[in-house]
Amino acid sequence: MRIPRYYIDQALECGQIIPLPDELHRHAVQVLRGKVDDALILFNGRGGEYHAKFSEVNKRHSSVEITEYDDVDRESPLDVRLVIALIKSDKFDFAIQKAVEMGVTSIQPVTAARTVLNLKAGRLEKKRLHWRGVITSACEQSGRTRVPELLAVQSLNDYLLEDDERLRLTMLPEATSTFTELDIESKPVSLIIGPEGGFHDDEVELMRQQTIRLVKFGPRILRAETAVVAGLSLCQSYWGDI
């Protein structure tokens, strides 16, 4: 049986006995029926992971003892940022979940001309907390030891106008260059993915002006969430660890 693995946002060290946060307690004890001496793995996003076992379990709370530190590193050597336009909630969740599994180091949500999701300030903060949960859950599942950074939402135009030393690229059916023609050694990469309906012509023109690399990925039109997986797979294949 696979050992449960959880993200916990605090300093950890061997020999430490810590109470599990309520949310982790509910899943580990009430859902998975964890009991005293059962094993689990904890990580705090700062590298490595910690082996632990339950030292106390009851209905309301549980504690674990950290027994061993494993300096494992499952992170990609490629520093890749996903810049993704807001899309419908379930599809956005899927996209960032798969991006984490594919090894992104940061996620930059943007609003584009054809973005259909309109989030006001109060709702946006709730969404950020939700997205953060999707990211940490994907880290737990995929064995990652560092948690990708979730950047603040900004407009696509503002993002494109920023000074950025990263290799910035996007995938367009009308592009003429392919990944194999980029001929660029590994460097920090930003992959830009548009919304449902694609980029507006003005946005594509701004990309050209800002020397964003436009990459051809075939004649077919991909859904945004599909483009995330396809684009990151290519990036990791050429410059990462796939």
Automatic annotation (TrEMBL):
Domain of life: Bacteria
InterPro entries noted in UniProt: Alpha/beta_knot_MTases, PUA-like_sf, RsmE, RsmE_MTase_dom, RsmE_PUA-like, tRNA_m1G_MTases_N
Keywords per UniProt: Cytoplasm, Methyltransferase, rRNA processing, S-adenosyl-L-methionine, Transferase
Main location class: cytoplasm
Gene Ontology CC entries for this record: cytoplasm
UniProt subcellular location: Cytoplasm
GO molecular function annotations of the record: rRNA (uridine-N3-)-methyltransferase activity
Example GO BP: rRNA base methylation
Short name of any one Pfam family annotated for the protein: Methyltrans_RNA
EC number annotated for this UniProt entry: 2.1.1.193
Annotated catalysed reactions: uridine(1498) in 16S rRNA + S-adenosyl-L-methionine = N(3)-methyluridine(1498) in 16S rRNA + S-adenosyl-L-homocysteine + H(+)
Ribosomal RNA small subunit methyltransferase E methyltransferase domain residues: 75-235
SUPFAM superfamilies associated with the record: alpha/beta knot, PUA domain-like
Listed CDD domains: RsmE-like
Top-level EC class as recorded in UniProt: transferase
Domain Ribosomal RNA small subunit methyltransferase E PUA-like as annotated: residue spans: 21-66
Role this protein plays: Specifically methylates the N3 position of the uracil ring of uridine 1498 (m3U1498) in 16S rRNA. Acts on the fully assembled 30S ribosomal subunit.
Family per record: Belongs to the RNA methyltransferase RsmE family.
PANTHER family: 16S RRNA (URACIL(1498)-N(3))-METHYLTRANSFERASE (PTHR30027:SF3), RIBOSOMAL RNA SMALL SUBUNIT METHYLTRANSFERASE E (PTHR30027)
Protein name: Ribosomal RNA small subunit methyltransferase E
Species name: Leucothrix pacifica
